[in-house]
Design goal:
Blueprint (H helix, E strand, L loop, with lengths): L1 H16 L2 E2 L3 E7 L2 E6 L8 E6 L4 E4 L8 H6 L6 E4 L5 H4 L8 E3 L16 E2 L5 E3 L4 E6 L8 E5 L4 E5 L6 E4 L7 H12 L7 E4 L10 E2 L1 H14 L6 E3 L6 E6 L2 E5 L13
Parallel strand pairs: 5-6, 6-7, 7-8, 12-14, 13-18
Antiparallel strand pairs: 1-2, 2-3, 3-4, 4-5, 9-10, 10-11, 11-12, 14-15, 16-17, 17-18
Helix pairs in contact: 4-5
Bound molecules: zinc ion.
Length: about 270
């Protein structure tokens, strides 16, 4: 009997780690209290969300672009009240946020006009600490992909949730609203100075890294590839997705797509 009980317990443990799907979403528990959730609305986008449970509150990092009942789906994963943390203003990260009562948003991205009431949203800013009850998410501003891009550091599990600011396996810096590459280099250098605080990076399009987290050395690779582009050591090759005119440059694990006409300066590009 004891053996049967152990087998049942093991089966339950395996099942609770399994993918959980619905018509609109699929999720995987990647650590105790942490889920990766993906919209299935558009197979070409694969936008990622992360649900992180603290002792009192759960945070949903980004809200995809689907049209399903995301709040209902999240309720099937956690019993805790849920707050939404938005990594940046692009529509594939803000799509279903209005289903939740509490939204934190980096206001430097307000010009993207996210689909919720901005005046009711709370600001996200560099150095802010979001206390989920025994689990703290630190906000680190990494402007570049957008002016307001932030990442969230879970110091307890040494995980970094990065939106599109850095990682999955490439970063789009050639699209409308992105900052000059030099500005992004400053952000990556700042993040690199925090490298000892995290082991793994979970990006905003997790499929890009084949659903495997990147390591913190990716940040160093990204800093190096940008430096090599700016000092002329690497000439990018044409990249034809997103806005026109992008060039792709790679060093080790990191790839950046950049606009050769927008290399230097601190100013915002075009908004
Ligand atoms: Zn984006």
């Amino acid at each position: 009997m004891k053996r049967i009980a152990i087998i049942i317990m093991l089966a339950f443990a395996v099942l609770s780690n399994c993918k959980k799907g619905s018509k609109d979403y699929v999720s995987t528990r990647i650590k105790p209290g942490v889920w990766h959730i993906e919209d299935t609305v558009d197979k070409t986008v694969h936008d990622s969300m992360y649900l992180v449970e603290g002792g009192k509150t759960a945070a949903l990092i980004d809200t995809g672009m689907g049209k399903g009942d995301l709040a209902g789906y999240v309720k099937s994963l956690t019993k805790l009240p849920v707050i939404v943390l938005i990594s940046h203003g692009h529509r594939d990260h803000t799509g279903q946020a209005s289903q939740f009562p509490v939204i934190y948003f980096p206001m430097d991205d307000a010009f993207f006009k996210p689909p919720f009431e901005l005046t009711a949203a709370k600001e996200l800013s560099d150095g802010q600490k979001i206390d989920l009850g025994g689990r703290i998410l630190e906000v680190i501003a990494v402007p570049g992909h957008t002016p307001g891009s932030v990442v969230f550091l879970d110091g307890q599990t040494r995980m970094l949730f990065s939106g599109d600011a850095i990682g999955s396996s490439y970063v789009w810096m050639h699209i409308k609203g992105a900052l000059p590459l030099q500005s992004y280099l400053n952000s990556v250098r700042k993040l690199e100075s925090r490298k000892s605080d995290f082991d793994f990076i979970y990006g905003g399009h997790f499929y890009q890294s084949a659903y495997k987290p990147l390591t913190s050395s990716y940040v160093t690779d990204m800093r190096i590839v940008i430096e090599k582009v700016l000092n002329g050591e690497i000439a990018g090759i044409p990249y034809n997705i997103g806005d026109p005119g992008g060039l792709s440059a790679t060093y080790a694990s990191a790839t950046v797509i950049y606009n050769p006409k927008l290399l230097y300066g601190e100013a915002r590009s075009d908004h």
